[in-house]
Amino acid sequence: MNYKKSGRVGRIILTAFLYISILTGTGLNAYAAPASLEEANEQAEERKSLPIQSNQIENWPAGPAIGAQSAILMDANTGVILYAKNIDEKLYPASTTKLMTCILAAENCKLDEMIKFSHNAVFSIERGSSNIGIDEGQSMPLEECLYGILVASANEVANAVAEHIAGTTDDFAIMMNQKAAELGCKNTHFTNPHGLFDENHYTSAYDLALIAKAFFQNELLTKIGNTPSHHFQATATQPDDFIERNKHKLITGEIAYEGIKGGKTGYTDEARQTLVTCAEQNGMKLICVVMKEESPEQFYDTVKLFSYGFTNFSAVNVSENETDYSIQNSNFFNTSNDVFGNSKPILTLNQSSYLIMPKTITFDDLDSQISYETSGENEVAVIEYYYHGAYVGNATVDLAEDTPASYDFTENISIEEPEKETEPNVIIVNIKTVLICILVIALILIAFFVIRSIINSYNFLDGGRISKRRRRMRKRNRKDGPHFPSSRFNGFDL
Q: For residues 76 and 189, is the Cβ–Cβ distance under 8 A?
């Protein structure tokens, strides 16, 4: 349904409708385009008063009031949400749709595949919408098409790529929706590959951030999506030579900001300005999505949100701070030594797991819970961390590899819930050491008996010779008569 607004009454009705939609969280707000730039700016000013959900978290850093209808700031690696304003509201994405188009292109095509432009690809787009003037029957390699989509936001190029992959743009839209569901999107439905207005083509700031998260995990797409301008050279299948400039002012440097990794602009009369951007600073890689804003404020809203995130939050390594979970005294994590005495833990916290935390809190301020439902090949469990109910990241418990572990789970008691009571000490028997000790003792005993046997054998042989001499003497005495040694009758002359 379209709502036409004029004057103060129209603005009051619009504001009331915005608040109702926020409270109900259902349906798509299909507003007509503002009648004038003045009206558009007034609406943007009113949107600054809309509630910011992340500001309602106890002791959470207060985020800035911005003129966007919806916005989110998300860590690109952990999915932690730093700033949230109407992030589940269904809105029109305009050309930020093309992020999904390029994800599917990268997954289903090679860079040197030739993309041919059909009549439908060229002539089905709105007259005057973004294009690079490719004619029917011409063709370009996929890599050049990606530059055309991400740098020039060319709608006919998005159409041609979609047809190349799926046969028709309608079938490609089915693939887009399947991929969106795979990424966890709940409020998204695509009908085309370019984002031109369709009331059934919508997404939310949260869903668009999930799509951007997948996009920026691809190095090639990130590189192309961070290109300020691109030179399209003439070829045998595309005879024009021209340069296209990116409209994203944070990418071109017209608005300077450190650490920009790429992004995508979007605009239609109904969607207003939408913007997706990624930036990296201080060990954090953040994604900012701004939806339904007025130019050029979408860029300044993004700068405000990035500055808010990098200033108030930091990445904290879990294995360097966690002390509540133990292997040794748990029924599940039963020992840190194997039966042969190797001093390596069976399980260990993943060294690379980290949280995104407000700088005003400490690790001890967090709550945690453990789940044994994991999908990783070497993962045994996942520990999730929260601050006043807000998710701040997780750490996986992995099967230990041959590399040294950064955390060996030697303190406290239980993996399921940290407790203060003390359990009986666990005695770890080192079988390798015991076997070595037994072997040493056995060698000592064997040596003792061998030496004793040698000594006894020597005495036996010597004693035998003495006995033989005595027998010879007795035999001679019997033959010659009594014989008395002179020493026994000293002084007598016989």
A: no
- SS3 assignment, position 430: coil
Cα 472 to Cα 407: distance, rounded to the nearest angstrom: 84
Q: What is the pLDDT of residues 426-455, one digit of tens each?
A: 444 455 666 777 888 888 888 888 887 777
Please give the Cα distance from 288 to 279 (Å, whole number). Answer: 8
Name the amino acid, one letter, at 257. Answer: Y
**Catalytic residues, which ones?**
95, 98, 153
Q: In the structure, what pLDDT confidence band is assigned to residue 323 with cuts at 50, 70 and 90?
A: confident
Contact yes or no for 305/66 (Cβ under 8 A): yes
Separation of alpha carbons 303 and 249, rounded Å: 11
The Cα–Cα gap between 160 and 52 comes to 40
What CA–CA distance (Å, rounded) separates 481 from 474?
A: 10
Tell me the pLDDT tens digit for each residue of 37-84.
889 899 999 999 999 999 999 999 999 999 999 999 999 999 999 999
Q: Which secondary structure element, helix H or strand E, spans residue 276, and what is its range?
A: strand 272-281
Do the Cβ atoms of 273 and 70 come closer than 8 Å? no
CB 287 within 8 A of CB 60: no
- Say which amino acid occupies 427: I
The DSSP 8-state label assigned to residue 65 in this structure reads: P
Contact 381, 71 (CB under 8 A): no
